[in-house]
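Task: complex structure prediction.
Instruction: return structure tokens for all chains below.
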Amino acid sequence: MSLGADRDTAPIQDVRAEMLKGAQSLAVAAPPSKERGITSDLSVDEALLLHAAGWEPLDLVTGVAVVSVPVGVWNWGRGSISLASDAHDASVDQASRLLRGECSKVHGHGVVGVRVDVTVNPHHIDVELVGTAVRPMDGKDKSGRGTDAALAMPFVSDLSARDFTLLERAGWMPVGLAFGASFVYAPRRTAGTAIKQKGQNVELTNYTEAMYSARESAMEKMQRSALGAGGEGVVEVKVTEGPMGFARHAIGFTAWGTAVKLVAETHQFVQPQVVLPLDDAVVTFEAANLRSSGQGKGRRR
Amino acid sequence: MTEETTQPGEAVETPPAPAPAPAPAPVPHDLPKDAVHRLEELEHGLFTSDLSVNEFLLVKEAGFHPLGFVMGSSIYHIGLQTRKWGQSQELTKLTEAMYTARELAMTRMEEEAQELGADGVVGVRLDVNYYEWGSDSAEFIAFGTAVKAEDGTSYRNVQGKPFTSDLSGQDFWTLMQTGHTPQGLVLGTCVFHIAHRKFTQALGSMGQNVELPNFTQALYEARELAMTRMQDEATQLQASGIVGVRLEEKSHQWGSHTIEFLAIGTAVTKRSGEVTLPKPTTIISLDN
Amino acid sequence: MSDVSGPGSADPFDAAGAAGTPGGRHGDLPEAALRRLEATSFSSGLSVPDFAACLDLGLQPVALVQGFCVMQWGWYGAGGTMRGMSPYIGGQQTPGAYSETYRCPHGFVSNEHRSWGQNLEQPWVEEAWNKGYHTAYGRMLEEAGTLGAHGVIGVMDQVSNVADTGTTEFHFLGTAVTVEGGPPPAGGVPWSTYLAGQRLTKSIEAGFMPIAVVAALASVRVWAYCMTEYYMEGSMGGWGNNMGPALVEQVSKAHMASRQLARKHVRQQLVGDELHGATIDVVTRELSAGDEVIDCTLRGNRVRRFKDWDPVVLPRPTVRLS
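Output:
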């Protein structure tokens, strides 16, 4: 992994000696513990990085919401299907609210590495968010909003622990997930136009406009949700689009990413590190890969 | 959107490609309302970008700030052209369609970037989508992140337009360190029909290991045409070279004998003599 | 080391207590397993890089060990219960920690109309799953213990339904190892982890000693009441129309409850230790509109710190030249 390069400045350890220490620690029965165990979906690397950045994991937290879509919404029509995007927004909002609630309950300041699953069914839109609640080890707020605000409104981010620490080092902090969705009916050409255009190279301008507008509209909703959360930017925007499996004439567009905010006075420049991998096949660091350790079950994106 | 889009636009702004290459790309000044609206919103101090955190920080490190995620699209009806069964030939009408539609999408993306006052667009992706409801038509989409230099220097290209580039944040930073500036994403395309072999020919060479010179020649020619057209675009931008050239071959929905050869890369010019790339650390990654 | 498998046998999630048989007693392992284990050469399911990393740590692979258990039970617990009737009737079943009832807002009673709905945890399903899982796990540990191994690394578990027979197979596979020059764990029960190779090395380097793989299932049954049924079908069933999007509270709550219960069950097995690399798998089986069973499995590595944190250098943006 890319951390390898960083490790050359860290002390080199005798892993055998460490293993022995570990084995010895288990050779004596552990005293009964009253502590509440910590659960997290972080890999060891992520736990290490977070710790180095002064954060500790608290609990695996989730938010799930199922919001109904009235019947008839997907029937043929023209223009945008606003009831479906309303249902999408309501589902996302509720899931985020529940996720934040679980985070606040364990006194977390935010949730990192959130896995996002949005499923659009004919009659309901399901949203599932799963991530790890974290807090600064010194308990002091790092978001510039004060501890009370941080506890009341924890940040939510789909960034991996590595990206989270990178971002924090540059003076930025995640604020929340920004979502936008729009659904439209596929445009139709009249038979007359179709015949006229047969064999010709021609732009189908009303098609272009319909799809273009729908895509822009999803992006705009995402922007509004980011601004509403107090973000100054959205990183790692993901866009998905395609016809609905159950209604091929309806096309859905979604855009989402993590809204971020500059909390330091200015952007902190960090001299990039140039690495030259010596492997035949270069494998880039990806938290998703690390997560699937030995179980063949990775984080789904 | 207006209907004028199939007509040639101002030749000053879009370089005409050489014959028998496609007609000059039309210039739409026709962003949909929603796009303009969204871009106006971005000016309220929010940026959006599909860059990863690593890329975002590298773009910042290179002295640029992301302004917004920009895109352009065009749904294009691709015309018909008769192909001769036994003849290898370029299908100029299809070439033209593929070229024009991509240029339309790219131009709209550039317009969005211009709207934001950007110096350029990084991380450009070009996609082609097919929909069930649009036979013989396809949607050409361009996505990217508009960026602007933080020190106020203009990095626009010789045509006064924002540069475009398909370089990732990492590649963009590296390129800037080598004293080069991207000028534009350049592409050349050629849709070629490869002759079916006559039954007697196939029979003649059955069981033999022989070169099939007309096949070799056809594929050779098609690729050369695509590459030449790409280079011509770079010349128009007065570029000193093209980096990251990819040559893609796709049959789209035409069947196996009709192939689009697409050459694509980022045209660059030298800015200064200095190479300020830090010495790389060699690593062996431990993961597999 | 009696806490390897759980907080104590009183806990319903401590079926693994059965695993606490130190090497020597050949419990219920089949003869074929014993014959295989007597072989002198080692076998291991590790890939070459994982094998190398394992030797580097001073772990000596002993053998590939496995454990099976096939369980049969009625997935639907009180499956014979009619709609609208409590599944606890007759007192055969104990209620779980979670249950909620929903009442029809229409004040209307008919055979067709679902005037009553309930979300309920199905502890009988959870216990059966837990028993199957930990029996198979215990057998794997027993194989390892028989060989005098100290731990099992690279554990893979598979829970699959055997065709349509209403049975479920639990299968564990792992590589038993000994720590060169190290003491056996207290109580003789080997430790275990899903990790192997570099990931295990990093874990050890960071000061996290694996204790056990832990997993738990939470099963929540949703008996839809009229509103849930209508929402999930997208219609209002004649009770008004022009309905906008609405939160389906009953189903949403059942989902949240299943995840919270799974977390609670896992935490009971942690006894104050940490769980790393957790994964959640959710299977939803829809029975009819709104009626469903939500099964949530949470698994991960139970680890314990054995030394203080070592400093790690924070990452910088990286550029690869390749």
